[in-house]
UniProtKB/TrEMBL annotation:
Cell wall formation. It comes from Hydrogenobacter sp. This is UDP-N-acetylenolpyruvoylglucosamine reductase. Gene3D superfamilies: 3.30.465.10, UDP-N-acetylenolpyruvoylglucosamine reductase, C-terminal domain, Uridine Diphospho-n-acetylenolpyruvylglucosamine Reductase, domain 2. It catalyses: UDP-N-acetyl-alpha-D-muramate + NADP(+) = UDP-N-acetyl-3-O-(1-carboxyvinyl)-alpha-D-glucosamine + NADPH + H(+). GO terms for molecular function: FAD binding; UDP-N-acetylmuramate dehydrogenase activity.
């Protein structure tokens, strides 16, 4: 079940990555627990991976756990309210397609996100005024002691591109309560889809948004004003379509990514006095979006 020294680039949407000391793709809760306790016993950092849509790896001297095989999807309807429970590995596109078919509020605005439900909850992913936490009712997760936990949204702290995970543990599933829209959402969906196609580099491997929007500003606009649009280091560049999107032009490396991000942050700070915060997660030895066991 555990694979040693695995190349991670195939598990990210930007197709850049070093190696993981250990990697696993558990098919059920027992295999997940085994992997977690294996890492805890060896004092290894743990990283939980969805689709890798906002993740770029260097070499990671720990355990990477892919949740792709947790794919359960259930729906219960109460009048015009749909209760949807999706496991962590369910593709966000499935949730979008279902909500569009049923005419549900919210999810259709996330069209084009190459993410899993678990990853989207953990990052509180959002676009066009909508965030994953908006219709979220409950999260089932495995805590760091291996105990199954259940928490209502009101018991959790969500904010812009932020959630209490993975500090609390590993997201296993989310339950959403989505109402029927009181209007035809198909046209709105089409407009959003076309905006994405026109402004985002869908023809190249990308990690999505590189930086969070600072309060009162758009990161892409700041980056464009300091000349980062199209700027290139090695085979990594900020897209000509959208200055906040990093793209891999062929043989991009983790080192290229680090250098170009540092340059972007330097230019924006020197020009505007604004410190950009990464939305993309840079994962390497000793730095995990997970828990580093001392």
């Amino acid at each position: 079940m555990l694979i040693k020294n695995l190349d991670l680039w195939p598990y990210t949407t930007i197709r850049i990555g070093g190696k993981a000391l250990y990697f696993c793709e558990p098919k059920d809760l027992e295999e997940l627990k085994y992997a977690i306790f294996f890492a805890l016993d060896k004092s290894l950092p743990i990283f939980i991976l969805g689709r890798g849509s906002n993740t770029i790896f260097g070499d990671f001297e720990g355990l990477v756990i892919s949740m792709r095989r947790f794919e359960g999807f259930e729906v219960r309807r109460e009048g015009d309210l749909f209760h949807i429970t999706a496991q962590a590995g369910v593709l966000l596109s499935k949730l979008v397609s279902f909500s569009l078919k049923e005419g549900l509020e919210g999810f259709y605005r996330l069209v084009g996100f190459p993410a899993t439900v678990g990853g989207a909850i953990a990052m509180n992913a959002g676009a066009f005024g909508y965030e994953m936490s908006e219709h979220l009712k409950e999260v089932v997760f495995l805590d760091w002691e291996g105990k199954l936990q259940r928490a209502r949204k009101e018991e959790l702290s969500f904010s812009y591109r932020s959630s209490p995970f993975p500090d609390l543990g590993f997201v296993l599933a989310g339950t959403f309560a989505a109402p029927k829209a009181k209007r035809d959402i198909v046209e709105e969906y089409k407009v959003i889809r076309e905006k994405r196609a026109s402004k985002q580099p869908l023809n190249l491997p990308t990690c999505g948004s590189t930086f969070k929007n600072p309060p009162g500003h758009f990161a892409g606009r700041l980056l464009e004003e300091v000349g980062m649009k199209g700027y290139r280091v090695g085979d990594v560049a900020f897209s000509e379509k959208h200055a906040n999107f990093l793209v891999n032009l062929g043989r991009g490396t983790y080192q290229d990514v680090v250098k170009i991000i540092q340059e972007a942050k330097r230019r924006v700070f020197e020009s505007f006095g604004i410190s950009l915060e990464e939305e993309v997660r840079l994962i390497e030895s000793g730095c995990a979006y997970g828990r580093k066991v001392q």
